Amino acid sequence: MKRCISDEIADALRGELEGGRYRAGECLPPVGELRKRFEAGEFAVRAALHKLRDEGLVAVKSHVGAVATTKGRNAWKGHLLFVHTNSNASYFVQRLAIQLSQRFESAGWCLHPVFIDADRDGCLDVGRIVRHVANGVSFAIVLSEFRQVSAIFDRAAVPYVILNGFAKDFPHARAVIRDDYRKCFLELIDALKKRNTVRVLEFDMERKMDRGFKNLMFDNGIRVSRVMCRFDNESQNSLVDVKLCGYNAVRDYFADERHRNSLPDVILFDDDYLAAGGITALLEAGVKIPDDVGIVAYSNKGNEPVLGKLPARLEHDPVATGDAVAKFVLNILSGRSTKPPRIGWRFIPGESL
After folding, report:
1. Domains in the chain, start-ordered, CATH in brackets?
2. Distance between CA 321 and CA 314 in Å, rounded?
3. Which residues pair with 115 in a beta bridge?
4. DSSP-assigned letter for residue 169
5. Cys bridge to 204: 135, 270, 336, 339, which one at CB 3.0-4.6 A?
6. What's the CA gap between 206 and 219, in Å, rounded?
7. Phi, psi torsion values for 109, nearest 5 degrees
8. d(C-alpha 163, C-alpha 175), whole Å
9. pTM score over 0.90
10. What does the pLDDT look like over 10-69, one tens digit per residue?
11. Residues 104, 80: contact at Cβ < 8 Å?
């Protein structure tokens, strides 16, 4: 029976890797070059690279490509999964995956990032997770609230931690690690009160705003309204699409004369790329920042150029988060008793508050 082209590509590259053609840390040719070399389509080339990644011979890193590790699957202490249920991951998730991979690789463990999507019925394509589990996985880090994912690890008796879930939903998880917003939120509320804020308008992609935060705002005399932002094409939600989504949501909202004549005191954006698009739409609409409205945005450390110095930020650090989570998991893998880390946010007042 004729073998598929992806297997042939994987065999050829595997031989070169094991033969020493690529040193540890050296990048393999980009997908475009491999397509020409093997006269194959992009899907076949990427499938071959995924096979090599699953064998531990390469690490596939965002914005870098496939990087040689020179280690076969059996040369690692073990294999771990990082699962996120969105194939078009945010900047934070992409940077977190890179940081986790680097920390575990330096400790002799191979981390496999697995980004998957849900279909229209809400079912996940979990085939890649199942294949990794069948090949032998020591531990999993899951950034998802889908019980469909954790159920796979429960059945296979693979220990796992959940990031940003609720302990009651995952009784079999080794730990549920949640972000600690409270101190950051209190600092933001103090800044809003100094600005005499009574009305905040939030542009949000999902209903994920912390209910405790909203209650704190109400307790301090600040009313919060929400506008849900939706993509024009639900199958495309890259970072560029998020920026366009913010632009369209703000433009459409202030196209209503009632909204233009009743500006909120502060606008809160739930994402830095969403804010970048939304701020552009505000300026085009003639809204002055911060004279007419103040701007606050959830953002990620290391991604400052997206927003510049204009808005105040609720800043999350993917590098520090990756370090804390990796240290916690490595302690578990080594048999040491340890408490889940506290992942914090920082409030950074900007020119608009």
Report:
1. 1-75 (1.10.10.10), 76-177 (3.40.50.2300), 180-317 (3.40.50.2300)
2. 15
3. 84
4. G
5. 270
6. 23
7. -110, 145
8. 9
9. no
10. 888 887 776 677 777 788 888 888 888 888 888 788 888 888 887 777 877 766 788 887
11. yes
